[in-house]
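Sorry, can you check?
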Amino acid sequence: MAENKKSKNIEMITGDPKKAIVKLSIPMMISMFLIMLYNLADSIWVAGLGADALAAVGFITPLFMVLVGLGNGIGAGANSLIARYIGAENHSQANNAGLHGIVLSIIVSVIFTILIEVFMVPILQFMGAGDTIQYAMDYSYVIFGFLIVFVYSGVASAIFRSEGDMRRATIAIAVTAIMNIILDPIFIYVLNLGIAGAAWATVFSAILSCAVMSYWIWGKKDTYLDLSFSNFHYQGRMMVDTLQVAIPSTLETIVFSALAIIINSMLVATDGTTAVAVYTASMRIVQLAMIPLIGLGTAVLTVSGVAYGARNPDNLKTAHSYSIKLAFIISIALGIVMFVFSSQIAALFSYTSASAEMSTQIAQAISVLTLFVLAVPHGMMSAMLFQGVGKGIYSLLITLLRSLILESVFAYIYCFIFGWGVTGIYAGVVFGCFVGGTIGYIWAKLFIRSFDHQYSKKTSSSN
């Protein structure tokens, strides 16, 4: 029965790319929805502590995204490499690629835990945490002290996705999200741990998820990949191949974090730390609407990796174009919902007297940032395709151009030069994202065309 399930998963990711994208993305959307839901719940519960506490989470979020990015980056590298080996029908190398990803997660976790814990205070001071720094320290020391839990979780989940086993990847993430939602109010208010309680709730939830995935891999042992450590054979080339996607993918997260730091600095200069609290709450809603796009993008990574490994340019082309069409349809629908119900959504963050004054500002921010969801699809799917085929540096360059350069530059121009204030910052982020994504889309189309031409020449010459 287990063998039949494993073969069905492999048949699914190596078959029709449209069906594979739908079947892979829906469970991932559910997983991401639960993750964003607990992030939203985290913000709502922390908002009850006041604007300073919520702003502190806003300052820590970029650093936490780096933390998550470490695991997701290595996971993306392992996912891409495993998928390519599955496409090439090389099972032993697929096993070895998964084990290389796990070893990398341990090494990276130890190094970065030490670095971040040691330099936490100067980092927060540099970011301009100001009056919120004690809140930020209480939250960050707990979260970053358990870095290995989050990094390993990202890699293990990616391994399940790489072999098309979205059911267990979804269950593992669901365990984290649901437990976090349950534990948040208990740790923050019942145990009276304040903002540190939110961090402890996140850590304990992630530990439980890691335990479940480890049992499936080494206890139950019914995965397509055999990750027994006897199958690990160090290969420098495999480590490089993994890092060629992992490093750029992780750097992309750092780019997003750097952008958040830049945007937060502009917001503080324009309207104080309250503006950061408003932006933090609004972006949590935007991130919630981004869930379907992230789910589609994750599916594109696996499907494009398999297509590239199998040297199938038609499937690669279909995966790219089909995912973008789906993403735009979903984005339009979600954008309308966000715009129409912006006031009601904002009310979620104003259930105490300490946070009530932010409600109107959050509603206005959501109305403008609705357009951000519409600006993302073509650029995101193109970047994920590059990760899938092992061209992580291309994905990184798209993100650098779109986020760190265009979004921050346009935000500065609209805010300070045009004098649009906080609204100008939001508008700059939206416009920069659209322009950068368009450039990435054109680049991906040219890459697919080149791959198709190269494959056609090899096929004709072999005949």
Q: What stands out?
A: The mean pLDDT is 85. The radius of gyration is 22 Å.
